[in-house]
Amino acid sequence: MEEKKKLSSGLLMAIGISIGVGFGIILAIKFDKPAIVVVTGYPVGLVIGILLKNKYGDGKKFGGNLSPKQRKTQITMIVIISILVLISLVAMSLISQ
Predict the structure, then answer these.
(1) pTM (2 decimals)?
(2) What is the Cα Rg of the chain in Å?
(3) Is the model's pLDDT at 52 over the cut of 70?
(4) For the chain, which has fewer Cβ within 10 Å, the N-terminal or C-terminal residue?
């Protein structure tokens, strides 16, 4: 059985945040609101980073082998961040009209 190569948690979080900020910049250009980068890009990047870390991470820092309680907390955090991002996107689209 082939063993997966584990990547650094910091690297995966950085990749996720980079993707999220890039997403935020695209939205900022579309809505002509620079604050969208911070409001949406960073939280989206954190969620992407957490998901990447869980799939490919080395298990350091936030834990690769999470207990059920930790896993539930992490999923709750991802859901809350996603809801806040959606609310901010809706608010920005209403403001830009």
Answers:
(1) 0.59
(2) 15
(3) yes
(4) N
